[in-house]
Design goal:
The chain is mostly helical and about 375 residues long. The protein folds into two domains: about 100 residues, no CATH class; about 200 residues, Orthogonal Bundle (hpI Integrase, Chain A), CATH 1.10.443.10. Strands 3-4-5 form a three-stranded antiparallel β-sheet, with no helix packed on it. β3 and β4 form a beta hairpin. α7 packs across α11, α8 packs across α10 and α8 packs across α12. The chain starts with a strand and ends with a helix.
């Protein structure tokens, strides 16, 4: 049994809503049990400090590299965090002879050490894609060290890695999209009908209109989830039915609203404006978030959208492993199915390279072949 609790209702409040799923009774004892004691370690002992993390924090070259990513490459906070995590693991696995309290000897980084690093990463069980990302991080860092005169050459460029097989993205059919986009209204209309108070009904209407608008915008423009929750009121141009999006690398692009998405946004703004648009005195309205939580009017988070998405998948009868990013895949594939040219789809998705967008042509072609095989009376004979 699932309990849907809109934000601000019940103990604790919260952002958007809560999904409360009671655990099976037979698991309660295990859930309440304390972890076993470890010999020689106090129960409340603080977690051990990671020497690699501390060493990286003290390293001037690393901080200069972070500044380079931020200023020159316009990297997002997510990109900076990913580079940091990769370099922490790389530093942890590199075979250095110097004590940990000494400066990192980047000048002694050579092909042999990089090859040993690659072997240790493989021994840790990393998949091929993860290995490629770690090596890409190291190549970028070594390229920066070469530019700064720390290294004479890039020792990571000559390491051979088999390319990861490129899997085709999974997409939803038009019928599945229709059911999914209708799910927020269905879920929260039911919740409002069962609500006991006026406040509960208002909370359900708030969540239903907001989440319907979020899903419509995700599919109408093929947005990444962080792009959608990052939208501000000032990004909208209702008259032109367009809005401005800040994508990867903080690059801006203009996206379009279809009629259903524009209608869903209008319905959401009717509720959003009087309830959550107050903000601090003198605040710039254009900089306020488009999608807000109900508790305090703060920006809706990607995690909240992901939690809600699971509810709507169940309501629509779709697989529970489907993610909001499949709306982006479906957007691109449906455009190509309808005859849109690849370059236009690239611009709408905000891809820097056309080769990234070309993966959707394979999806579209495969769908056409399946339709042909299913519908044409002599399709089977033609393939034998």
């Amino acid at each position: 049994m699932i309990f849907l609790i809109p934000a601000g209702i019940g103990a604790g409040g919260g952002e958007g809503y809560y999904i409360r799923m009671p655990r099976p009774l037979q698991n309660n004892a295990a859930c309440d049990a304390k972890p076993p004691a470890i010999a020689g370690v106090a129960p409340d002992a603080a977690p051990a400090v990671d020497p690699a993390r501390e060493r990286l924090e003290r390293d001037p070259a690393f901080h200069q590299f972070q500044q380079h990513l931020l200023v020159e490459r316009n990297a997002s906070p997510h990109t900076l965090a990913a580079y940091r995590r990769d370099l922490e693991q790389i530093l942890r696995l590199l075979d250095w002879s110097q004590p940990a309290d000494q400066p990192v000897p980047w000048t002694s980084l050579d092909r042999l050490r990089v090859r040993g690093l690659l072997m240790r990463l493989q021994q840790e069980g990393l998949g091929r894609r993860s290995l490629m990302r770690k090596m890409s991080t190291l190549r970028s860092f070594c390229r920066f060290l070469g530019r700064e005169g720390v290294l004479d050459h890039n020792p990571a460029v000559d390491q051979l890695l088999l390319k990861a097989p490129r899997t085709l993205p999974q997409v939803l059919t038009r019928d599945q999209i229709t059911r999914l986009l209708a799910a927020p209204a269905a879920v929260w209309t039911t919740a409002a009908a069962k609500a006991d108070t006026t406040a509960d009904k208002a909370a359900a209407h708030f969540a239903g209109r907001r989440d319907a608008a979020v899903l419509e915008v995700l599919y109408s423009a093929g947005l990444r989830i962080h792009e959608a929750v990052g939208l501000n009121l000032g990004d909208l141009d209702p008259a032109a039915q367009t809005f401005r999006v800040r994508g990867k690398g903080r690059k801006e692009r203009v996206c379009f609203l279809g009629r259903p998405a524009a209608a869903a946004l209008r319905a959401w703004l009717e509720l959003r404006t009087p309830q959550t648009a107050a903000g601090p005195a003198g605040a710039n309205t254009a900089a306020q978030p488009l999608f807000t939580n109900q508790r305090d009017g703060g920006r809706l988070t990607a995690r909240s959208v992901q939690r809600a998405f699971k509810l709507y998948l169940r309501e629509a009868g779709l697989a529970p492993d489907c993610t909001p990013h499949k709306l982006r895949h479906s957007f691109a594939t449906h455009l190509l199915d309808a005859g849109a040219d690849l370059r236009s789809v690239q611009e709408m998705l905000g891809h820097a390279s056309l080769s990234t967008t070309q993966i959707y042509t394979h999806v579209s072609t495969e769908r056409l072949m399946q339709a042909y095989a299913k519908a044409h009376p002599r399709a089977t004979a033609a393939h034998n």
